[in-house]
Design brief:
The complex is a heterodimer of chains A (320) and B (90). By secondary structure, chain A is of the alpha+beta class. Chain A is built from seven helices and 20 strands. Chain A is globular and about 60 Å long. The chains are: A alpha+beta (320), B alpha+beta (90).
């Protein structure tokens, strides 16, 4: 068994499948600990990899949706929850997980080569984490995250709107930045502070960092011909953050926990709406707007005051 | 009229909002911001099998110092907007 601590929560990976574990290793190794070192942290959930089992009897389908490169079917019965991953084109079952209603104990079977098994196992871990962590003031976000000077900034947007692109612009044009996670960071309210954690899930970018930072701001990215940034009111911020987390709306108890945590995050954070291009001025406008950077960079002995050239909210000529 | 079930009235930094929850509202993705008086009426009317605009006016006049004709016009307008927003049925 492998013991991981993700966002201060204890996750148990239980599989004897050596090739699977080898493919899992790069993502999960940064979060793994000796069992004795995390004995004091209560287990959030365990995912047991087992032989193929019978489907859940009398299950009702609650939702089905595209989950990265698979089709995901979510079913529920009095006994618990069943999540099936299917091939996107043939709709053949390729992996299945069953767990109790509180997502604390789960088993799964997998098919295909080690890469496909890892893909499905890791997706199950991510879904279990998203649902189980909600009861612990913790949310799995869909965001790209940059840290600078001890604080982190989450970029939210619909897939394809340019979260990763915006992070890349910060890394290139704002000095002293680092990528925390590029797709699925974890946000938790800890001792009254909002903290963002790296995770073993990061979309197509290999960025599985076991690091955490206090959140400096959440920014929703919208494409526009000119750059501007506005801080949002609490109600707008709540409406903006709620759909950015993985959740199960049909499960009232969990959904309330998600709303509670989102409200706690909103009351402690600055949340912004950014309208921007996919160019350098976007990173400048945003980083200055959220207070991550004073706009002064230096290099090659020249000090360039970005602020005087490019104040936040003003359209700038495109770079040649 | 009747309020639709499956909406939770929540407090977000002192503002009142309605959030849809559960299977019955799976496609209701909006968050509705209510002002203080609308939130007060929602709390009083949530769960009732049926109510009229006059019931709303009576509730409003119980709690707030407001002229009946003003309350009546405002309640009719609020009821109309609740129906329009998919929060209530006639």
């Amino acid at each position: 068994m492998k013991h991981c601590i993700i966002a201060d929560l204890h996750v148990v990976i239980d599989s004897d499948d050596k090739p699977l574990l080898d493919v899992l290793a790069p993502r999960y190794a940064p979060f793994c600990h000796r069992a004795s070192d995390c004995a004091e942290v209560p287990v959030l959930f365990a995912l047991h990899h087992v032989e193929r089992f019978e489907p859940l009897a009398n299950a009702t389908q609650m939702a089905d949706f595209e989950c990265q490169d698979t089709w995901c079917v979510y079913e529920q019965s009095e006994k618990g929850v069943q999540i099936t991953l299917q091939d996107l084109t043939t709709r053949q079952d390729i992996a299945q997980m069953q767990c109790d209603a509180s997502f604390s104990d789960a088993k799964c079977w997998l098919t295909g080569d080690a890469v496909q098994r890892e893909y499905c196992y890791s997706n199950f871990l991510m879904m279990l984490f998203a649902f189980a962590a909600m009861r612990h003031q913790t949310l799995l976000f869909h965001a790209s995250v940059i840290a600078r000077e001890g604080k982190a900034y989450l970029f939210l947007a619909k897939s394809g709107t340019g979260k990763s692109t915006h992070s890349t612009l910060w890394l290139k044009h704002v000095p002293g930045c680092q990528l925390v996670n590029d797709d699925n960071p974890v946000v938790g309210v800890r001792d009254g502070k909002v903290i963002v954690y790296g995770s073993p899930w990061s979309g197509k970018t290999n960025c599985y960092r076991n690091v955490s930072f206090e959140v400096g701001g959440f920014v929703r990215i919208n494409r526009a011909p000119e750059c501007s940034i506005q801080r949002q009111s609490p109600v707008s911020a709540f409406a903006l953050l709620l759909p950015s987390c993985s959740g199960v709306k049909w499960d009232k108890k969990l959904y309330r926990a998600q709303c509670d945590t989102t409200a706690a995050v909103v009351s402690r954070s600055a949340i912004y709406e950014l309208y921007c291009t996919p160019y350098r001025e976007a990173a400048v406008t945003c980083s200055i707007g959220v207070g991550a950077w004073d706009g002064v960079s230096s290099g090659d002995g020249f000090a360039v005051n970005e602020k005087s050239l490019k104040p936040a909210g003003v359209t700038l000529p495109q770079e040649p | 009229m009747k309020l639709k079930s499956g909406f939770a009235l929540r407090d977000i930094c002192g503002e009142k909002v309605l959030v849809a929850e559960g299977l019955e509202n799976i496609d209701f993705s909006k968050i509705v911001n209510l002002n203080e008086t609308a939130a007060y009426l929602w709390e009083k009317l949530d769960g009732r099998d049926a109510f009229t605009v006059d019931d709303m006016v009576a509730l409003l006049c119980d709690e707030y110092d407001v002229a009946a004709d003003v309350a009546s016009a405002d309640c009719a307008e609020l009821a109309r907007r609740w129906v329009e927003a998919g929060l209530a049925m006639e």
